[in-house]
Amino acid sequence: MATVTRPLPGQVVRERRSAGLWSDAWGRLRKNRLALLGLFMVLLLLFLGIFGPFLAPYPYAQQDLQAIQQAAADGYGIGPLNPGQYGHVLGTDQLGRDLLSRLLDGARISVSVALVVQLVILLIGVPIGAIAGWFSGRLDNILMRFTDIIYAFPDLLFIIILSVVFRETAFGRTFDGLLMIFVAIGLTSWVTVARLVRGQLLSLKETEFVEAARAIGVQDRKIITKHLLPNGVGPIIVAVTLGLPGAILAEATLSYIVIGV
Question: The pTM is what?
Answer without folding.
Answer: 0.76
